[in-house]
Amino acid sequence: MDFASFLTSLGTSLIIFVILMLLFTWLSGKPGNHEIYFPNRIFKGMEPSSRTRNPISWIKEAVSSSENDIIAVSGVDTAVYFCQEIIFNATANLLMLMFFFPAFSMMVLAGIVLLPSLLPLSITDHSITQNNTTSNGTFSELDKFSMGHIEQKSPRLWGHLIAVYWVSLVTYFLLWKAYKHVSEIRATALMSSEVRAEQFAVLVRDIPPPLEGETRKEQVNSYFKAIYPDTFYRSMVVTDNTKVNKIWEELEGYRKKLVRAETVYAQSKTIDKPEGIRPMNRIGFLGLCGKNVDTIEHCNEKINGLITKLETEQKVTLRDKQLSSALVFFSSRVAAASAAQNLHARMVDTWTVEDAPEPRQLIWSNLSLQFYMREVRKYIVYITVALMVVFYMIPITMISAFTTLGKLVKLMPFIKPVVNIAPIRTVLEAYLPQLALIIFLALLPKLLMFLTKLEGIPSESHAVRGASGKYFYFVVFNVFIGVTLSGTLFGNFKDLEKSSLTKIADLLGKGLPDNATFFLTYVALKFFVGYGLELSRLIPLIIFHLKKKYLCKTEAEVKEAWAPGDFGYATRVPGDLLILTITLCYSVIAPLILPFGAVYFGLGWLVLRNQALKVYVPSFESYGRMWPHMHARFLAALVLYQVTMIGYFTLKLFYFTPLLFPLLIFSLIFAVVCKKKFYGFFEHTALEVVCHELKESPNVERVYRSFVPPSLSSDKLDGDHYGDA
Amino acid sequence: MDFASFLTSLGTSLIIFVILMLLFTWLSGKPGNHEIYFPNRIFKGMEPSSRTRNPISWIKEAVSSSENDIIAVSGVDTAVYFCQEIIFNATANLLMLMFFFPAFSMMVLAGIVLLPSLLPLSITDHSITQNNTTSNGTFSELDKFSMGHIEQKSPRLWGHLIAVYWVSLVTYFLLWKAYKHVSEIRATALMSSEVRAEQFAVLVRDIPPPLEGETRKEQVNSYFKAIYPDTFYRSMVVTDNTKVNKIWEELEGYRKKLVRAETVYAQSKTIDKPEGIRPMNRIGFLGLCGKNVDTIEHCNEKINGLITKLETEQKVTLRDKQLSSALVFFSSRVAAASAAQNLHARMVDTWTVEDAPEPRQLIWSNLSLQFYMREVRKYIVYITVALMVVFYMIPITMISAFTTLGKLVKLMPFIKPVVNIAPIRTVLEAYLPQLALIIFLALLPKLLMFLTKLEGIPSESHAVRGASGKYFYFVVFNVFIGVTLSGTLFGNFKDLEKSSLTKIADLLGKGLPDNATFFLTYVALKFFVGYGLELSRLIPLIIFHLKKKYLCKTEAEVKEAWAPGDFGYATRVPGDLLILTITLCYSVIAPLILPFGAVYFGLGWLVLRNQALKVYVPSFESYGRMWPHMHARFLAALVLYQVTMIGYFTLKLFYFTPLLFPLLIFSLIFAVVCKKKFYGFFEHTALEVVCHELKESPNVERVYRSFVPPSLSSDKLDGDHYGDA
């Protein structure tokens, strides 16, 4: 790619972004689109749109909103996510400032008297001829700014060496500050005087079999009453809800159908035809065959039948399908927080207790998995994911092989006539493998989430953290290292056989500079097009309008159509971390990437702040437990960067390369100290935080009820009934 | 060593043992020796000796004593130690049975239909000629029984392979049972209805600086009162006691001196001289120079002066020398056990809380070491010990070089005339280096204990565990692996350069069989002479009688002279583990070692049970927290054994050697499962255990007082005074 085409691609992206932003300004002004652009506000019962028509008013709002606004509207997790954005941006900006304005950095760190600017160092080194640049002479203008332009063994490399230290120190400092800050946010949220259901409950798993003639309920109650005579409130034994859930879903389906049929019937009562047309449907397969019945009557009939069935099943479930786990409720927050940390039984694999997640994010089906089952599953999933990360090309190749036209035709003979048309055949043959790859990549987060849930994790937020971590390793390994090494790897396959740390460092050092331009473009594309689409929400808008027009009949259906979903941390965080890894790794080799990184995180902060305030509705609150994961992966990126630099300096035959090794050791110490100091509070709730007074004395009965799953709650089955079953 | 000399050495050891046992029977019958042979009984206020004069009555008593007797007399730790002895013995016995009576093992494990006896397999293999045995033909009779007698690639090796599996499985099974049993002992002790001071207290360290105008005491009280409003009782801030301790010791010294002087004076009042002789002493250096004073008057004077000084210093200490740690007392066991496990502060490096040890085993000077200081010290100590283990020869060589006669004479010219006498010179020259080695080895446990205490550990029992672990690695590495490899190592030094796991396994496999006889003799010597001396207590007896005759004047001094001390787990446990490692590693290669191992642990069980019941007085009670350490090291020995066997089978060119690798993986899984299942309860106190009712409602004030160090407790300073200072 030469300089001109780089500029072209950058320009195109910018134009797309501007168009998308203008579209956003225009579309978000229309009241009919408010459900798409301000759903979170509508949910919170606030005024959807600001009055002004100013195209940049959203930027003003985003900038002027404080962290507390974010916490109030979108929860602690989102605020923590912004901490990430801020620290990423700060890293990029601080480094950029340092590289482009050495004077500024000298002012800031007067101690380090001479922090040489790397760009002048690179540009003024004419000892390497144009033909000899790292990108094989095709991109010489940009290469001038890179470290590849510097001669081997040149003393100018000292500047770059100091820069590596500087980047690392800045990162340590910012990470430390951020961890401290996030820890404070978490503490503030946990010590809030609001009554939060999950703060009064703990989740008990691996309950041993009850004694003869004792119900689970009695067993759990007597066990906890003995230990916490004053603070134990009551318990809720987890039941096997599969059957009752199925009935309940069927019932809900018929209820929706009934409302829809009634709406349709009401709409059909025009002035001309005051009696209207009663909607009819067939009760056979997919409504295509079978007897034709009056929908309203049919639904009412079904609903009445199902309600009786549900009530019977509820009773059976509560009585006979009790499983080996329970939720236990306490009358004070301190007692619950303390119980979640204590060892209760002698054998650690029985009566395991942990913090209860929010009711809405409980994964009921995982709650009663046994201890060793969870351990075994965990390791199986880890191994599976590790194999997937390393050998992800293999299933794709298999899918590609499977999706050749010949095989498809064999499997589905009915598509043969279509395939035989020449132009369609050509297109299909060309795109089927790529399509398979794209579909696989699109399904990957879902697959990882599925695998993570298989581990037996009890809460959604924990599953999101797990899936996010797995996805991070996947993208870093395959996108970043894959792209970097692919050329080098196949060229030097023999070298790889004796692979060792220094070998890998060498390979990274060799491969990285060649791909600087690719990643520059990648980052630019990501922020211009990615954030443009994010802000303009074109696709949800189109889908919403289509649905509203052709499918939705009732209020509830319309609401469902514009429900914005949540932030999707499972893919968003790894995506950001990938950009961060790229920016970090190139920061010294090709400092030109820094402004791109800075714009990515700056723009991201702006756009996502807008989305957090107005669009996305958080689906859970984990009080910032995502942070330690981000922190660990940020550090992993830093270590990758340090290893890469060691490789690159070795390649430049710089004698003082070993001076970089202490950095690796320091990273390790930093990681250990951070973990020792901060991590405990993210794992458990510190008691000093929850011992603060509450605004009102908590209604533990209400807390208890909020945990009853909808399929088991019923007007007839009052709390006591449920409890004593 | 040939067979005859082996028998001779065995016979000599046996004769020594019999003599020592007879001596014991004779000496322990004399009432004047009761303080040496029954001190624990005397302490407990029981009848010292049993009536019978039967020489084996002690064996009867030892055998008939139950585990509960041991716990009652000597505490849980001792009972756990016997669990170790039993399981070691069971391992050895089970394996022995299996090797020598295959029929028996077949009966026991009917499932494994044909567990071939290894000895017949070895003896009947005549394919290797006598000249070709592993011990270079010098020890052919014993070699016949060993695996070295079997031809390479022989299918008979299948028998040995199965034996390796059998040994491992027996070990897993016994370890599992033992861990479960120890866990029960611990639980029973912890749930006992006696009031034990340490169960009501927790140790709080790393308290942050108090606010302006707040004392430490107020800070601690308000902090814990907020979190535990109902169960918090009071707190005791740890103070810097160095100065007050010094004064107190001086005071105690003068008090002892006074009692001694009074006794001497009373004894001097014979009928002839009813006024007696008032004892006098000089008050200068070592009582050799200075003014001659009347001792009783002088002591009284000093004591009065010191009491005033002590009181002033006590007040100053309590007011001004408060440090950043405290003991916090709760009114219930559950509250204390729960508090010790909870995270209290957001930052994990402040307000760290742990179970309080017993008052008698608190290491006061370590209590207020800061968190990071402890971490840093820990790693420094670990590295130091690791270096010591690996390079222990270096300081010894240095000491040897230093202790040549020439240098000694230079340093201490006054010994010159002695050295110049020819025979003394010869002896000194020959033995000085060895003497240095012996002194170093004798000092090693003390050195390791000193290093362990430097880590900042708060309790004696924990320090003993730490020192014991370090000593284990030292003896296994230097005695076992050192002896085994020394020949092989120096011979094949070039091979070692590319050292890897298989390489080490190879080396072990090569070296082990050559040393079988050495270790046979070693084990025999250990049990015959070691346990003979242990039982007869000759050295303490002699020392006691000498002291009683020439030094002791007062009752207290006599008591001090016969105080038996405790078990000394720090060296005893690693010693046992070394023998176990040897027995395990040779169990298949030279099964003849098994009866020796069995006798070692059987005799050990008998002798030490006698000592536990009658002699040693435990100096602390840690409720069996030693066990996980023993367990881990037992497993380490097992893994070492498995690695050795892999090496040995490789050496025999047996094709199915890889079949042994699953054992290593299984050992790993076993270790992880044991840790997950059992370890938690040894780290913390399970709440279900301590929620049992107490016999009487606890007097927490008395609990509190038991923690006041003697130098700070005083009749004048009543509890409140102390508390409110």
From TrEMBL, chains A, B:
It holds the Pfam family PHM7_cyt. Keywords: Calcium, Ion channel, Ion transport, Membrane, Transmembrane, Transmembrane helix, Transport. One of its GO terms (molecular function) is calcium-activated cation channel activity. It comes from the Eukaryota. The chain crosses the membrane at residues 6-27, 94-115, 157-176, 379-402, 431-451, 471-493, 577-608, 629-649, 655-674. It is found in: Membrane. Residues 377-649 form the CSC1/OSCA1-like 7TM region domain. This is CSC1-like protein ERD4. It comes from Chenopodium quinoa (Quinoa).
